[in-house]
Recover the amino acids of this structure.
């Protein structure tokens, strides 16, 4: 059995190494009444030989959002790839709500351009027609940009399929061979790139608001230090290496400062460092642990974890006035908070009955909703459109990533066959590398 | 590393010879002073046994002067706590004694946590555990400059399991002699 499974995994490595180098997606739960959409396999000119299934990538993006139920190809009655070949009655019979068709052409310079159309089947209406152009290497970017457009047109929420994830892959923990990799990947787990590989722990990756850099904590020098890593140039610099703890870096919304934790003055306190001038401002002053800062979207305050009341709870401090107020009162362990883009909702790790959940708290109504059912959930990171969050959890003792929608209805998991994955950080919206136009 | 060890051993042998020379005559304030109890128990020892007892093992880690076994260098904590358990104080006092007698030796105190709770909070908690050990040692006369704390939080478990037992083994401070 074991041997057979190993053989199958090996086969899988040869067949689709790209898939298995990263994260596999397993959809756990979707909406009760998902939107029915048909994404017809895109047509292409005869001489084209594309190894990626663009319409398949779009269908998978929309499926894992949990809001859509893409129709299986074999159930379609026709396969139009041009607007004039669309007959709404073919799709109404199938009870499809929306239809996407498209066609791939090669430009004179070998770039690919995809022309696609979105239709509202119920109202027999044409909604959008666009052309997206990119290089052969950008086929997945093209597909994700189509997913973003379709998602926004139908749900009125910007899509986040073109964003990225960073996470940590930890292998052989508890042995002398233990090692850590900081990985960059698409949000579907594909196109993995290793940013840093180390024998020593890596944690707490945080994106700059423009998506060009990642700050993280690395123990490679024998002690925790904060590094800034430029994604496109793959170069980095050490930012903070005071005696003691240098950790929990988070970028301010304007990208000019980093809030972080230092223990140089005696114990873990929160500081704000101006990246340009290197000036450091001390924010907290308390013999308790103060850690895990996160910015409010307006940049005026930080929320943070402190055990000044005896147990870890979440507090907020106004940076100009220094006024601190406590935000969490339910349960005896609330930590590592992040704010939704609206600034009115808090996401954090919440222990109840000894189980570590991810909880959402409405700061105006003070209501708490537990979003997860499994144990040992941590490190929640919110998608830039505020609709989903990714977090780390365990499955049979293995560290995996999981995604849940803010309303708790949609769930999918991203395990890795390579080891324990953890410390996910969802990127902000990134500057598109493609050319696109409305037709 | 090897040289350091050689130097330490030579120093200890010399100190031992000097002490043997004035055994039973005066109480001294020499840095290499042997605790009172052991001078008393050594008094009736045969005269030919002049070689001082070994104080370190082959790795340079201190031995328990009473038993000759390696001193325990790992100390365990309760969940979300950084207080030393009473049963560890005797061993820590022996570490303090060794470090007082060997001012050229230094120790890295690593603080660790179990996997429960958030990583950054655990990083701070691990430091608090390390600091507790450092406070005990400095209160016992060890120089602060002989000690350094590094917290690894929950990042370096000795046991990668997820049971109560694994968690217990991972909530620890380790003394690494340098």
């Amino acid at each position: 059995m074991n041997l057979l499974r190993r053989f199958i995994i090996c086969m899988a490595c040869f067949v689709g190494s790209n898939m298995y180098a990263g994260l596999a997606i397993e959809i756990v739960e979707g909406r009760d009444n998902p939107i029915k959409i048909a994404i017809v396999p895109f047509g292409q000119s005869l001489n084209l030989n594309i190894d990626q299934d663009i319409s398949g990538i779009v269908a998978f993006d929309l499926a894992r959002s949990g809001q859509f139920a893409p129709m299986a190809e074999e159930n379609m009655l026709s396969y139009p790839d041009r607007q004039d070949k669309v007959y709404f009655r073919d799709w109404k019979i199938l009870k499809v709500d929306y239809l996407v068709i498209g066609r791939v052409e090669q430009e004179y310079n070998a770039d690919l351009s995809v022309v696609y159309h979105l239709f509202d089947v119920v109202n027999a209406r044409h909604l959008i027609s666009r052309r997206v152009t990119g290089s052969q290497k950008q086929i997945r970017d093209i597909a994700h940009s189509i997913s973003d457009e379709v998602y926004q047109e139908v749900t009125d929420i910007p899509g986040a399929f073109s964003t990225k994830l960073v996470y940590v892959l930890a292998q052989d923990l508890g042995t002398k061979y233990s090692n850590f990799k900081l990985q960059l990947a698409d949000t579907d787990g594909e196109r993995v790139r290793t940013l840093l590989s180390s024998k020593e722990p890596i944690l707490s990756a945080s994106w700059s608001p423009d998506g060009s850099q990642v700050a993280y904590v690395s123990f490679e020098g024998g002690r925790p230090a904060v590094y800034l890593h430029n994604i496109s140039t793959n170069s980095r610099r050490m930012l903070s290496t005071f005696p003691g703890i240098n950790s929990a870096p988070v970028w301010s919304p304007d990208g000019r400062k980093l809030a972080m934790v230092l223990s140089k003055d005696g114990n873990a306190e929160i500081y704000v460092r101006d990246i340009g001038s290197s000036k450091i401002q001390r924010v907290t002053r308390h013999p308790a642990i103060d850690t895990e800062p996160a910015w409010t979207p307006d940049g005026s305050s930080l929320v943070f974890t402190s055990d000044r009341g005896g147990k870890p709870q979440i507090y907020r401090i106004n940076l100009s006035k220094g006024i601190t107020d406590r935000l969490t009162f339910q349960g005896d362990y609330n930590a590592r908070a992040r704010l939704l883009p609206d600034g009115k909702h808090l996401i954090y790790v919440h222990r109840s009955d000894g189980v570590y959940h991810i909880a959402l708290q409405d700061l105006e109504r003070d209501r708490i909703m537990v979003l997860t059912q499994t144990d040992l959930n941590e490190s929640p990171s919110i998608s830039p459109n505020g609709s989903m969050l990714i977090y780390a959890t365990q499955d049979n003792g293995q560290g995996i990533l999981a995604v849940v929608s803010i309303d708790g209805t949609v769930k999918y998991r991203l395990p890795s066959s390579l080891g324990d994955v953890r410390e996910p950080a969802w990127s902000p919206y990134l500057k598109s590398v493609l050319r696109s136009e409305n037709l | 590393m090897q040289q350091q060890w050689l130097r330490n051993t030579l120093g200890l042998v010399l100190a031992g010879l000097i002490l043997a020379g004035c055994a039973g005559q005066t109480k001294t304030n020499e840095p290499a002073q042997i605790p009172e109890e052991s001078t008393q128990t050594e008094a009736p020892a045969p005269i030919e046994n002049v070689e001082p007892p070994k104080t370190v093992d082959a790795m340079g880690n201190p031995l328990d002067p009473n038993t000759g076994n390696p001193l325990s260098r790992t100390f365990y904590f309760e969940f979300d706590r950084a207080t030393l358990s009473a049963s560890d104080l005797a061993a820590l006092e022996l570490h303090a004694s060794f470090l007082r007698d060997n001012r050229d030796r230094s120790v890295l105190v690593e603080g660790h946590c179990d996997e429960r709770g958030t990583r950054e909070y655990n990083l701070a908690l691990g430091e608090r555990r390390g600091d507790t050990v450092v406070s005990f040692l400095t209160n016992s006369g060890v120089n602060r400059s002989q000690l350094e704390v590094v917290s690894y939080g929950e990042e370096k478990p000795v046991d990668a399991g997820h049971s109560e037992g694994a968690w217990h083994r991972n909530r620890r401070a380790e003394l690494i002699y340098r």
Observations:
- DSSP finds five helices and 32 strands in chain A.
- Chain A has two domains: 31-159, 164-426.
